[in-house]
Amino acid sequence: MKLYMKQKVFSWADRFTVKDAFGNDCYYVQGKLFSWGKQLFVYDAASGAEAAFIKQKVFSFLPRYEVYVGGAQVLEIVKEFTFLRPRYTISGKNWDVQGDFFAHEYSVTQNGAPVVAIAKEWLSWGDTYAIDIASPADEIAALATVLAIDCAVAQQNN
């Protein structure tokens, strides 16, 4: 299953839609404008219900994001301390993340099997990502992981 995420170029708060391969809106992502740390709400486009909530832990040495689904924490994405290449740990699932995070070309695997592949599209107005998710059961967790890593990379670039 493929999802496409296009971020707006000029926006005070994070606001964008996530579309499927046919161009239909699947999710709506909205950031909280004035908050300590990054907070993103992911809403189901069809029902308007909250699908996930991503919250940055503020008082942490390295970027750390918690993902909540249905009010319960399901994932924690932590940027590890490394000198050469960024590395992320995902607690809550047995997922491994690898690739080029600055170019937004990376993948998430579980025991060697692909979970999600992320690729930034070049020559587009605004950041556009193609997210290829192997299993529909991992759709929300995979999308939240992509959003959290994107926030960590953006924070490091600023």
Give a written overview of the molecule.
The protein is mainly beta and 158 residues long. The radius of gyration is 15 Å and the shape is globular. The protein has a 12-stranded antiparallel beta barrel with strand order 1-2-3-4-5-6-7-8-9-10-11-12. The mean pLDDT is 85. Helices cover 12% and strands 48% of the residues.
Features:
mainly beta; 158 residues; 48% strand
Q: Count the strands? A: 12
Name of the CATH architecture: Beta Barrel
Sketch the topology as an H/E string, one letter per element: EEEEEEEEEEEEH
Considering the protein shown, what is the CATH homologous superfamily? Answer: LURP1-related
What helical percentage do the residues reach? 10-25%
The biggest sheet, with number of strands, parallel, antiparallel or mixed sense and barrel status, is: 12 strands, antiparallel, barrel
Estimated structural class = mainly beta
Number of domains: 1
Oligomer: single chain
Radius of gyration: 15 Å
- Low-confidence regions: none
Percent of residues in β-strands: over 45%
Instruction: Characterize the overall form.
Output: globular
Query: Number of helical segments?
Result: 1
Average pLDDT works out at 85
Task: Give the strand order of the largest sheet, numbering strands 1, 2, ... along the chain.
Answer: 1-2-3-4-5-6-7-8-9-10-11-12
According to CATH, the fold-level topology is: Porin
